Structure formats: C-alpha cells, structure tokens
Amino acid sequence: MVKNAVLLSIVFTILVAIASLVKPTSFPKTGVSFSDKIAHTAIYFILTILWLFSMMRQKVSQYPFSKIGIAILLLVIGYGIFIEFLQDTLTDYRSFDYYDMLANTLGACLGFLIFRGFQQQIVNLKSVENSMLDKN
C-alpha cells in the first residue's frame, strides 16, 4: 500500500510537469481566466495531499507536524515555481505567470492545512479510542 501511494505521488508529479510543459494545442484558448487559477490550485492541492499521505503511510512520526511535512510543503511550492520558470525558458508557447505561482502555492498550502486538520482528527480519535480501551 505504501509503495502504491509513493508511486501514485511520483506519477502525478510527472504528469503535472508534462501537462505544464507540453504545447497546449488541445487546450481551448481562453486566455487568463479564473477557472485556470482554480485548476492550478486544485492540482497543487492534490499534489500536496498525495505526498503527505505517502509520507504518512511511511509512518513518519506526528506527520505533518514534523519537519518532513513542512519540507514537503516547501518542495511542492518550489516545484510549482520551478515549473513556471521552465515554461518561460524551455518553451516558446508557455509563459511565466506570477498568478499561476500564487495559485500553485495556495493549493499547496490548502492541501497541507486540510491534511493537517484531518491528521489531527485521526490523532484525537485514536486518543479517545485508547482511553476508552484503558478504562475497560
């Protein structure tokens, strides 16, 4: 199960790069739109959740409260910035966009915070369950 989570995270990361760098011939030309920024936010939200889940499955202590959780957040944000620079330098059909970077960062931060919230809920439920078992 852990290997599948890591593999899924790797595949999704590669797909993000491919989708970000290929020529958008099949994409409709809509210019800069609100829906484009929502897509960026959603993609980086999913990317962050996948990597955090992969590491949680590795049984990293108190994930994502650990330094590793913060490192994943920073790596995903850095990945989004790196992709924007690659779009500007490697292609002549894509361009660097600060708003895309902002949407990517927002998605990563939301993914981290939501994952952290659910992680805390799981920890709380396990504590209640353990205390109930101790009473019996």
TrEMBL record:
Domain VanZ-like: residue ranges: 35-116
TM segment ranges: 38-56, 68-86, 98-118
Keyword entries, A-Z: Membrane, Transmembrane, Transmembrane helix
Presence of the UniProt keyword Phosphoprotein in the record: no
A Pfam entry, by short name: VanZ
Keyword Manganese attached: no
UniProt cross-references to InterPro entries, sorted A to Z: VanZ-like (IPR006976)
NCBIfam families: vanZ_1
Protein name from the UniProt record: VanZ-like domain-containing protein
Organism: Croceibacter atlanticus (strain ATCC BAA-628 / JCM 21780 / CIP 108009 / IAM 15332 / KCTC 12090 / HTCC2559)
